[in-house]
Amino acid sequence: MASPVWHPYAHLLTQATAPKVVGGEGPRFFLEGGETLLDATCSWWCMIHGYSHPRLVAAIKEQADILCHVMLGGLTHEPADRLARELVRITPPGLEHVFFSDSGSVGMEVAMKMAVQYHHLRGKPEKHRMLSLMQAYHGDTSGCMAVCDPEEGMHSLFSGYLPRHHFAPAPQAPYDAGPDEVARDLAALRSVLERHHGEIAALLMEPLLQAAGGLNMTSPLYLTGARQLCDEFDVLLVFDEVATGFGRTGKLFAADHAGVTPDIMVLSKGLTGGYLGHAATLATDRVHDAFIGESPLHAFMHGPTFMGNPLACRVALESLAVFEEERYLDKIAGLNRVLREELLEDEALRRHPDVDDVRVLGATAVIEVKDGSRLQGVAAFARRQGVWLRPFGRWLYTMPAYVTPEVDMRQITGTMKGWFLK
Ligand SMILES: *Cc1c(COP(=O)(O)O)cnc(C)c1O
């Protein structure tokens, strides 16, 4: 009998039978029947320590003996308190308050509600819409779908059901662009703000790397400029670092490339090293303190059942400790060197007639093709080489676990190139 599991992003008519994973270790997972696959995607970018990391597994087991769960409404516990302190310590200066939730999408919903309520409490209730960017992806819940790219995004079918927000063009200037090139992107952002700032609560962006919307990479100067524009137009700046957080762009947070502090920042995916679902929405004093007041409207009315789950907080603390003690930023720099050498500097690949662009940032690399159908069959091809790749649209990418050894990294890049340079 077919399995009753309904898989995500799958066409039911054409989907292949999903292989069954029975375990994993380091950058690899194991399939029933003995096959082993090197995971080039670290399970939707979250398993940054790879599979079965002994310290993370032990942390969950230890915490399970003490306390698996308790509500955060009116109560607190050691793992939540400690994790909040750690997140304040490692994130850009000025982010001082932490609201926990259970997934990246919900973390973004929290950010958007916070921004709207912030303006309401300051006497500007008409500032209740978001400004997002084309090519953005912020999650699959309704509120998040409404701020994903309205054309290329996965959610256009729902447009009649979703609230309307504003969109600025996706930034075009690449990571190493100069100020003149970035100025064009900022001018486009300014023009939307000039017209609509009266109703805009917050500018949302995935800083430096628009991930699920096509791995579009941009300049740190864009972040600096966006910060200035937000201040000028009394708009909160929200960084969705769900994908970019915890080293993916080469620094701990994408914001660190620009030395910018957003008003609100959202973390998830890498937060627990992928071992449990969790998220954190951080806010500055300025945002937080607007909620201090006497009216009933001053309470922030949000509270996911599993927010601050002790197991998730405990494993997140362990993940951070491993990240720092084992110098993951150095490991990421090593992966970056291989990605640049093997993909960015490969002339045959870059000049291949089907390839539109090759981009690398931190531990992320993408081969963008001109026509998405060129990627049909690449996942099966990779599997035959022992590699798990999962391209989407026109993008063949890797976001490996940071523990991936150099030879395995070259196996991944070799497989990606091999599809074009057979
Ligand atoms: C994955 C992702 C989300 C959604 O997170 P979920 O945990 O899947 O809800 C939001 N924003 C960005 C940038 C993401 O990559």
From TrEMBL:
Substrate binds at residues 44, 137, 269, 303, 390. It catalyses: (8S)-8-amino-7-oxononanoate + S-adenosyl-L-methionine = S-adenosyl-4-methylsulfanyl-2-oxobutanoate + (7R,8S)-7,8-diammoniononanoate. The record marks 9 as: Participates in the substrate recognition with KAPA and in a stacking interaction with the adenine ring of SAM. It is an enzyme of class 2 (transferase). Its cofactor is pyridoxal 5'-phosphate. Pyridoxal 5'-phosphate binds at residues 104-105, 240, 304-305. Pathway: Cofactor biosynthesis; biotin biosynthesis; 7,8-diaminononanoate from 8-amino-7-oxononanoate (SAM route): step 1/1. It holds the Pfam family Aminotran_3. SUPFAM superfamilies: PLP-dependent transferases (SSF53383). Keywords: Aminotransferase, Biotin biosynthesis, Cytoplasm, Pyridoxal phosphate, S-adenosyl-L-methionine, Transferase. It is found in: Cytoplasm. Homodimer. NCBIfam families: bioA, PRK05964.1. Catalyzes the transfer of the alpha-amino group from S-adenosyl-L-methionine (SAM) to 7-keto-8-aminopelargonic acid (KAPA) to form 7,8-diaminopelargonic acid (DAPA). It is the only aminotransferase known to utilize SAM as an amino donor. This is Adenosylmethionine-8-amino-7-oxononanoate aminotransferase. It comes from Billgrantia aerodenitrificans. The lineage of its organism: Bacteria, Pseudomonadati, Pseudomonadota, Gammaproteobacteria, Oceanospirillales.
